[in-house]
Amino acid sequence: MNNKKKILIALSVVICVSYLSVSKYIPNVFNKSVNIAYYTDANYLPYMMTSLYSAIKNKNKDSIYNVYVVAKDFNDSSRQKLNLMASKDVMINIVEAREKTLDYNHLGRFSSFRTAMQKIFISDYLKDVDKVLYLDADTLVQQDLTQLYNKDISGKYLAATKDGLMYQFPEHITEIGLDWRRFYFNSGVMLLNLKQMRTDNIVSRAIRYFNSNQEVFGDQDILNVVVGEKLAPLSYLYNCNSTFFEEKDAEFLSEFYEETVYRTTREVYDNATILHFAGHKPWTEWFTHSYLKPLWHEYNKEMITTYNIKP
């Protein structure tokens, strides 16, 4: 064997060993499979399907989406419609919701959040899933989700985006004892470490907190309290709520989110990975945004046409 071949072999060994040594510190960097979860009832199914359609339309060709839908009050027609969205790289898994026994009187004036309370049970519903990206049905996904999903949340319960309620209602944050953390997140988009949540009995802790308090702001208050310090921040671009960007300027929001916010609202919306309609919904008459309302309806129309959805 000549010296040139020996050198090439030696270099190959070094590169291989170096990759194996480094790769353990960058877990899932090449993982193209994404677990996504929704919770919906039959009435909200068209909106959830619009969200899922946007995620499918804007994903990379080599990404694989494993979609888990925790479904309440589904009939055969509901299941058939949803299963139309399945393909070789989009797997649809329908998990029947089981109404958990909770005293919803503890919600008080926030009784409209009763359905959303099921979010706290996701780790129970998806017992064989260790990590999942949870999305509310009132979202639009504008980019591939692989980079978000591969964020390392080892040792954390979840990763989420700051909620503007922190500056809108600071007294509420103080009342629930979270002013020390300076971080109150929105639960409409959450990257969840379900394995860690099961290990540490987060569901039991969540129920205990709910049963011990009044005027609870739904699942969002509960999850914010019980996860403590085991959470990681996500960029505002992963949970972009138009309400905040219409109310405050880029300078204020850059300081709030602790990252540079685009100067114009249109730049924010165009660059957001996930748009979240957490206030008025784009399918209602109360939502009048000149750009975002037509955008949602365009996705909705495309979804209906693509899958030939019947009323």
CATH topology: Spore Coat Polysaccharide Biosynthesis Protein SpsA, Chain A
Uncertain residue segments: 6-29
CATH class: Alpha Beta
The total of helices stands at 14
Alpha-carbon distance between the two ends: 73 Å
Major beta sheet, strand line-up: 3-2-1-4-7-6-8
Which homologous superfamily in CATH is the superfamily? Spore Coat Polysaccharide Biosynthesis Protein SpsA, Chain A
- The share of residues in extended strands comes to 15-25%
Global Rg: 21 Å
**Element-level helix/strand string:** HEHEHEHEEHEHHEHHHEEHHHEH
**Sheet with the most strands, sense and barrel status:** 7 strands, mixed
Mean pLDDT: 88
Let me know the number of strands: 10
What would you say this structure looks like, in words?
The chain contains 14 helices and ten strands. The protein has helices at residues 3-23, 45-57, 76-83, 122-125, 146-149, 165-168, 170-175, 194-199, 202-211, 218-226, 242-247, 250-257, 265-271, 292-306; strands at residues 33-41, 64-72, 90-96, 131-135, 139-141, 158-162, 185-193, 231-233, 240-241, 274-276. The strands form two sheets. Strands 3-2-1-4-7-6-8 form a seven-stranded mixed beta sheet, sandwiched between helices. The protein has a three-stranded mixed beta sheet with strand order 5-10-9.
